[in-house]
Amino acid sequence: MCHSAVSQKIIFNAHIIADHVHVVVQAYRALQKIRIRVMNTGL
Question: What's the pTM value of the predicted model, to 2 decimals?
Fold first, then answer.
């Protein structure tokens, strides 16, 4: 069961939000994974 489903069962009026800092961190991590994969394959 994912985090949001658990939150909705426990806290009925909960709203799922994402602040800009966490969105940027997730985007950075995703780009890092792609960059490392490309570097390791020699493209």
Answer: 0.55
For tokens 């994912």, name the residue.
2
Length of the chain: 43
Q: Where are the domains of the chain?
A: 19-43
From the first residue on, what is the mean pLDDT of each consecutive set of 10 residues in the chain (43 residues)? Answer: 64 75 92 95 74
3-state secondary structure the chain: CCHHHHHHHHCCCCCCCCCHHHHHHHHHHHHHHHHHHHHHHCC
Structure tokens at 30: 């995703």
